[in-house]
Design brief:
The chain is mainly α. The protein has two domains: 9-72, Arc Repressor Mutant, subunit A; 91-228, GntR ligand-binding domain-like (Four Helix Bundle (Hemerythrin (Met), subunit A)). 68% of the residues lie in helices and 3% in strands. The chain has ten helices and two strands, in the order αααββααααααα. It has helices at 9-23, 35-42, 46-58, 91-115, 118-132, 139-156, 160-172, 174-184, 187-202, 206-228, and strands at residues 62-65, 69-72. A two-stranded antiparallel sheet has the order 1-2. A hairpin with a 3-residue loop joins β1 (62-65) and β2 (69-72). α5 packs antiparallel against α9 (187-202), α6 runs antiparallel to α7 and α6 (139-156) packs across α8 (174-184). Keywords: DNA-binding, Pyruvate, Transcription, Transcription regulation. This is GntR family transcriptional regulator, transcriptional repressor for pyruvate dehydrogenase complex.
């Protein structure tokens, strides 16, 4: 039987930093005490404290701004976090990623059709307007706009946890998402399908929003699957 590992000093410091943030009522963007003040408060050396801070930064709980200080991170209240260690996906995983999105995103499009506020609809229009200006080869900008559309659609669904799931998939696998754009290679059709999804959401047509999102993602997955097959 393996020995149960004991919490390290860095583990304990990480928990104490999180407790400091929670009990202090700090919100994302709030400035925290300096490294020197924290070292004195927790009676540890600066290198030991920095190790704990780096761990918290990796999860988005804090943000270390060079020359400015330590701030509460935007992801401190997230339930679902992207894996920062994920680097590259195989072809099979790329298809699994799309398969997961086919399961998750169509119902969220229907929820967006039901719940989206005027401000959220305006955000969707803005990102598609931005996408429409990058259909002639500016793939980096087009990719960002496309991912923003899917992320904003998930946000408009009104379920924060599911929005975080979609955001994590799009964030961690950004290189693969760019690869999907390259392989799919029909930017105009992709853009028009996004427009059709938005039109259904704006019309508050739940079934159309869900079906158009599903058809869009299934089509992308089918094309990718076909083009990834080795030649006979």
């Amino acid at each position: 039987m393996s020995e149960v590992s004991r919490p390290t000093l860095s583990d304990a410091l990480t928990e104490r930093m999180l407790e400091l943030i929670r009990t202090g009522g700090h919100r994302p963007g709030d400035r925290l005490p300096s490294t020197r003040e924290l070292s004195q408060r927790f009676a540890v050396t600066t290198p030991t404290l920095r190790e704990a801070l780096r761990r918290l930064e990796a999860t988005g709980a804090i943000e270390l701004r060079h020359g400015s200080g330590i701030y509460v991170g935007a992801d401190i209240e997230r339930v679902v976090l992207p894996n920062p260690n994920m680097r590259e996906m195989r072809a099979a995983q790329l298809l699994e990623l799309l398969g997961a999105r086919i399961v998750i995103e169509p119902p969220l499009a229907a929820m967006a059709a039901r719940h989206a506020s005027g401000e959220e609809l305006a955000a969707l229009r803005r990102v598609l307007a931005e996408a429409g200006t990058h259909l002639r080869g500016e793939d980096a900008e087009l990719h960002d706009a496309n991912m923003a559309f899917h992320g904003e659609t998930a946000r408009a669904a009104g379920n924060g946890v599911l929005h975080q799931v979609v955001d994590s998939l799009l964030t961690v696998h950004a290189p693969e998402q760019r690869e999907i754009l390259q392989i799919f290679d029909d930017r105009r059709r992709d853009y028009e399908e996004h427009l059709a999804i938005l039109q259904a959401i704006e019309a508050r047509d739940l079934s159309a929003a869900e079906e158009r999102m599903r058809a869009h993602l299934v089509e992308v997955k089918t094309v990718i699957e076909h083009r990834l097959q080795p030649p006979e």
